[in-house]
Structures are given as structure tokens and as C-alpha cells.
Amino acid sequence: MKAKFLTLSMIALIAITSISCSKNDDPIATVIPIIPVAVDGFRWTENGTATVLTVDNPYANASFNSIFAVRSGTTIYEINLTALTPGTYALGGASANSLFYNNTGAATSFSPTSGSVIITGNANNKLTGTFTATGTGAGVTSVSGSFTNIVIN
Question: Tell me: the pLDDT tens digits for 18-36?
């Protein structure tokens, strides 16, 4: 009798666990982190918009400590600094550094009243950094951008 009870108990236990277990078909979500990738070139936004603008020929000139952003032969940006070494360079006011921007071909250019250029790298004839400026001219009140691995001539 004890063996019969034990056998029936085992059968009941197997039946219950087989029936109560459900197959787990939940998909496994793979999380792929988004890592910002620095893209070589010269990029900026104006007036706080999300639209990123670019040029086809950015370069720096070591003789004049200048950064140029050129599109189709037209200079869009000219940034003149006291040096091209890593550091922060103030713009506007009595600063010896300057930024000229004209993306519209208008008679007037954007002229910053304040801002900075931060050079983060100068190695292997390539220049990397960021810039921000506020000011007036050509309907622009602010610019913000970056230059990554632009060639130094």
C-alpha cells in the first residue's frame, strides 16, 4: 500500500510540475549602447537649433594660427587665435582672438561679443577642438561647434 501511495504521489507530482510549468517564450532584448563617435571635419549649429552644418574643406594654417572652414571655395569660418596649442582662447571684447562667420553670403557677418575656442588636440598635423560664441550679424545670435582632426598646413 505504501508503494502504491508513493507511486501515485510521484505521478501526481510529475503531472503537476509538467502542467504548471510554462514555456518561457519572452524575447531577450539585446541592449546596444549608443557611443558617440567623433567624426573628422568641421561641424556647427547656429541660434541653438539642432541642424548640424558642415563644410567640405576645413583646415588650419600654422603660420597664421588660423582655422578655416571652406565650402565650395567660399570661406564660411575664419578663426584667428594667438596659438594653435591645446588651451582655451577667449573671443570678443579686447581679446586678440577673433571669429568671423558668414554662412549666408550676406553683406554682414556674424561678429561674436563673447565666447571661446577650446583646442583639445594638436598632434600629427591634425587639430581638434570646440567653439562657442554669442554675438550679432546676418541673423545669427549664437554659434557652437567642433573641429576634429582637421589638417594643419
Answer: 665 555 555 665 555 555 5
